[in-house]
Amino acid sequence: MPRGYGGVPFPEPLAFFLTCTTYGTWLPGDKRGWVRRGQGHQPPDPSVELDALARMGEGACRLDEQERRLVTATIENHCARRGWVTHAINCRSNHVHVVLTAAARPAEVRRQLKAWTSRALGAHERERAVGRDVAPKPFRRRWWSERGSTRYLNDEAGLEAAILYVRDGQKTRRR
């Protein structure tokens, strides 16, 4: 029986569960708690949140329905081009979850997905602005927060749970 079945973990992760928040929607100090790199989960801290808010270079990013579909399609296309297997994708107004298998480091996968979706969203934003009779507003420079969450999925049960959460667990809450 191959490793990974019967509860024995695979030697390499089966997949990654990546989460990226949109720019400015979950700041350090947030009332929901937050994660400090290298130190883990942190309690809410209004003064830290105010400081982070003051340092923002532009407003928070909320994706509309059309932008969410574009993010999903861009991720699907990029993964197919790279030969990465997407198990589940769910793009919400303030974050995206992706469960995928890739022969690459998860930080590099996340970096590529954020870069490709940022380019697609920027092109979409410029395309929507063509022909408008209103004064042009500055185009968004930042679509995603600086980092994101990475979870290694090391066994079939973990992979299945992540897929179910991304596919079904995000439908009931609107953000």
Keywords:
175 residues, alpha+beta, 4-stranded antiparallel sheet, 4 helices, 6 strands
Give the uncertain stretches in residue-range form. Answer: 1-6
Strand content is 15-25%
DSSP, total strands: 6
Strand order of the largest sheet: 4-5-1-6
Summed over residues and divided by their number, the pLDDT gives a mean of 88
Estimate the helix proportion, in percent: 25-40%
Specify the structural class: alpha+beta
Shape: globular
Distance between the termini: 43 Å
Q: What value does the Rg take, in angstroms?
A: 18 Å
SSE order: EEEHHEEHEH
Question: In this structure, how is the largest beta sheet organized?
Answer: 4 strands, antiparallel
Could you please describe the fold and organization of this structure?
This protein has 175 residues and is α+β, with helices and mostly antiparallel strands. Helices cover 37% and strands 18% of the residues. It contains four helices and six strands, in the order βββααββαβα. Strand 2 (34-36) and strand 3 (40-42) form a beta hairpin. Helix 2 (65-82) crosses helix 3. It starts with 14 loop residues before the first strand and ends in a 6-residue tail after the last helix.
Question: How is the topology of this model organized?
Answer:
Elements: E1 15-21, E2 34-36, E3 40-42, H1 46-54, H2 65-82, E4 85-91, E5 95-101, H3 106-129, E6 149-153, H4 156-169
Helix pairs in contact: 2-3
In short:
By secondary structure, the chain is α+β, with helices and mostly antiparallel strands. It has helices spanning 46-54, 65-82, 106-129, 156-169; strands spanning 15-21, 34-36, 40-42, 85-91, 95-101, 149-153. It is built from four helices and six strands.
